[in-house]
Amino acid sequence: METPMSVRKVSDYVWEIPTAAKEGMRVPARIYASEELLKEMDAGVFEQVTNVACLPGIRGHALCMPDGHWGYGFPIGGVAAFSTADGMISPGGIGFDINCGMRLIRTNLTRAEVQPRLHELVEALFRAVPTGVGCRGFVHLSGPEFREMVAEGAAWCVRRGLGRPEDLEATEDGGRIPGADPEAVSHKAVGRGIHQLGTLGSGNHYLEVQVIEPYNILDPELAAAFGLDIPEQVVVMFHCGSRGFGHQVATDYLRVFEGAMRQYGIAARDRELACAPWNSPEGRRYFSAMACAANAAFANRQVICHRVREVFVEIFGRDERALGLEMIYDVCHNIAKLECYRVDGEEQELVVHRKGATRAFAPGRHEIPLRYRALGQPVIIGGSMETGSYLLVGTPGAMDETFGSTAHGSGRTMSRAAAKKKVHGKELQRELEARGIYVRTASYAGLAEEVGFAYKDIARVVHAVEGAGISRPVVRFVPIGNIKG
Fold first, then answer.
1. For 76, which of 200, 201, 356, 412 could close a Cys bridge (C-beta 3.0–4.6 Å)?
2. pTM, entire model
3. How many Å separate Cα 277 from the centre of its chain?
4. Residue 201, phi then psi, degrees to nearest 5
5. 251 domain-assigned
6. Domain boundary pick from 369, 384, 414
7. DSSP character string of 16-54
8. Residue 135 maps to a domain
9. Neighbours of 426 (CB within 10 A)
């Protein structure tokens, strides 16, 4: 398709929309993509990223990653940084599933060891990790316990034996966003989240058993540093977030911010970009509630990680240390963070919004765990259940150009409703098994929504971020087993 507004080529993988393209733009918009991916983006991406560029206090550029597509307020794949002095915070720049993210776990097992027991393994994982709309977890919490959990994040789980202390070191921000205040969260949000700890949910959330084929080790030295150097090595990757709790937090504060915009005289080109000044009581209170939802997501993935370890021990009859069940990393991709960058020659504290985008810090940045600081921050980019996923690392280019950000996944090419019209879930399940991918799902309709052709080619997305210099690929993983909501 033709791009709907003036786009200037900066490089083979960077495209800019100037401020003259739309009245009110305070900064240019930039899209990171190959020319082919750019032409395939829906018109909503261009409309939304330029709307973001109109928000008060924005710095640098409004950005969209190569997996970008139309979203709520911001495009999915959107990144924007706002000054803490005169900028905004917006739920539309973070998303409803706050801290939706990825976790990657290595094993010492090979395909040859896992394949004969793959069905048994996937069925056991399906029983151990509740999936689907409205599913409930096995960890039962009282109201006070839930509020403790959302304040403490993954550490709350580790203290209760649902993980190891070293898991926290391999989790972004140690598995806890500071500033969380349970008093900023509504009773309705607590009610939606209190039974969902340790659940996968539905939509594009998944838990996948994957293999590293030898030709998919793209940087052998870095792969070995991550412990991914066994021929045909098996790993586990999963994708989920804060579930109904985060959704309700976002819903609550979008209503609050509609009134705040009138109070502070803020205009936005789209009501989905409802926002409040960072320095306002409403803005700070939302950040405190968002941090609670982010911490709940970290805890959710921590419990799932614990359940995965239990299943592998049960199926393969060895303890988890012998099985090498160690976390590689856990990243979030629907979040706002306080981070410092040099903008226009000046060091500034910024509220960086990432909506369907992953932090990709370069080697040496203090936020990276010591074990990875010389390598760069691990970046986990999930593909569709048919095409595989990637581990990458952050680069200096990301620090210079994208506020330390890169893509988060494949990015949809069609709506869920359109996908369901093209394939039936049960038929898709049979086709995948014939191709060596055993899938267990709570909903055939949900499975059909996630068919591979509903997503961009993950290899093209990774090629674009590599070409732009904002992250560096290490390993590609190929799916052999999957559980879906």
1. 356
2. 0.97
3. 25
4. 85, -150
5. yes
6. 369
7. EE-GGGSTT-SS-EEEE--HHHHHHS-HHHHHHHHHHTT
8. yes
9. 12
Burial class (CB in 10 A: 0-12, 13-18, 19+), 165: exposed
Residues 203 and 69 in one domain: no
Give the residue numbers spanning the domain of 413. Answer: 101-336+373-484
Q: Which residues contact 453 (CB under 8 A, 6 or more apart)?
A: 413, 414, 419, 422
Q: What's at 416, amino acid-wise?
A: R
In a domain, 1, yes or no: no
Tell me what the pLDDT averaged over the chain comes to: 96
| Amino acid identity, position 474 | V
> CB–CB of 323/109 below 8 Å?
yes
User: Within 143-219, where are the H helices?
Assistant: 143-152, 154-159, 165-169, 187-193
pLDDT at 5: 64
Contact by Cβ (8 Å): 107, 324: yes
Q: For position 485, what pLDDT does the model report?
A: 76
One domain, residues 77 and 200? no
pLDDT tens-digit readout, 87-107: 999 999 999 999 999 999 999
Catalytic hit among 366, 408, 424, 463: 408
What per-residue confidence (pLDDT) applies to 203?
Answer: 87
Q: Write the pLDDT tens digit of every residue in 111-137.
A: 999 999 999 999 999 999 999 888 999
Give the C-alpha separation, 175 to 430, whole Å: 38
Q: How is residue 362 written in tokens? A: 């370069």
Distance of alpha carbon 205 from the chain centroid? 10
Q: Determine whether 424 is an active site residue.
A: no
Distance CA(102)–CA(365), nearest Å, equals 21
Residues 423, 471 within the same domain: yes
**Confidence check: pLDDT of 386 > 90:** no
User: Do residue 23 and residue 68 come from a single domain?
Assistant: yes
463 plus 423 within the same structural domain: yes
Domain assignment present for 3? no
Helix (H, G, I), strand (E, B) or coil at 385: coil
Does residue 204 sit in the same domain as residue 280?
Answer: yes
Using only C-alpha atoms, the chain has a radius of gyration, in whole angstroms, of 21
What percent of the chain is modeled with pLDDT above 70? 99
What total number of domains does the chain contain? Answer: 2
- Write the CB contacts of 116 (distance below 8 Å, at least 6 apart in sequence): none
Domain end call among 369, 386, 417: 369
CATH number at residue 132: 3.90.1860.10
Q: Give the pLDDT of residue 1.
A: 41
Residue 380 shares a structural domain with residue 354: no
Phi, psi (degrees; rounded to nearest 5) at 44: -60, -30
Q: Verify that 384 and 410 share a domain, yes or no.
A: yes
Nearest to 166 by CA among 97, 101, 227, 114: 227
pLDDT number for residue 106: 98
pLDDT of residue 4: 61
